[in-house]
Design brief:
Length: 238
């Protein structure tokens, strides 16, 4: 049984560029678990996989000269929570979400994790409603402009970000940075910064003409040390 027409859902479908044959699928995709038992988590699971495949296809076509590492980095940037959150806001998903009163009062309609999950669920719903090509068309509509206007090397992570993500993926506390020394005249100083990962008892130093540059160099050295030691039998894998 189809749900009654909803102006918010009709407007959303216009923005999505897809008219659902099964309106109940879209309604479920927009239903948070706080609202009821018929929530969107299964659709989110499916949509996550469909999104990864669709973005992989678009990135593969756009960046024909890029290697696997570059393609993986671009895809990871596009499917991360922050990117999905921005796209969900642009599509107006907050207006159509179904949340409990408590979740609404707590700002759930704007929460990045809820919106990112809902967008993945919508992609999963489109896939079930009309197949992969329809889902690919939606992903192209949402991410195509960003993909087409970018170059693979522009998505490279800075060393501090890459180090933080490496540690967080292993549930290790983020590093601490401190200025270990400064040298030279005030107008031409060189900074030496220490990057320490206390949980592992490791510290690396880097130098630069600014504190930021020195931090980046210290982070790069720390990341290199960690990655060199991160093997199946190594002491750093958690």
């Amino acid at each position: 049984m189809q749900p009654r027409p909803d102006p918010a859902l009709a407007a959303l479908q216009q923005r999505l560029g897809h008219r659902f044959a099964d309106q109940a699928l879209l309604q479920r995709a927009l239903t948070h678990r706080s609202f009821g038992a018929e929530h969107n988590e299964r659709l989110e699971f499916l949509g996550d996989a469909v999104l990864a495949l669709a973005v992989s296809r678009l990135v593969y076509d756009r960046h024909a000269a890029s290697d696997e590492g570059d393609l993986t980095r671009v895809r990871a940037h596009l499917v991360r929570e922050a990117s999905l959150h921005r796209s969900a806001l642009a599509l107006g998903l907050p207006e159509a979400l179904r949340l409990s009163e408590g979740e609404l009062r707590a700002g759930g309609a704007e929460r990045p994790s809820i919106l990112a999950d809902a967008l993945e669920a919508v992609i999963g719903a489109v896939f079930l409603d009309a197949g992969y090509e329809a889902a690919l068309a939606l992903v192209r509509r949402v991410f195509g402009e960003v993909i087409e206007s970018s170059e693979a090397d522009s998505w490279a992570k800075d060393a501090k970000t890459a180090l933080q993500e490496w540690l967080q993926a292993r549930r290790i506390a983020v590093p601490a940075y401190r200025i270990a020394a400064t040298r030279g005249e005030k107008h031409a100083q060189t900074f030496e910064v220490e990057c320490a990962v206390a949980a592992l008892g490791l510290a690396e130093r880097g130098e630069g003409r600014s504190r930021r540059a020195a931090e980046q160099e210290a982070a790069r050295r720390m990341l290199a040390t960690l990655e060199a030691s991160d093997h199946p039998d190594g002491p750093l894998r958690t």
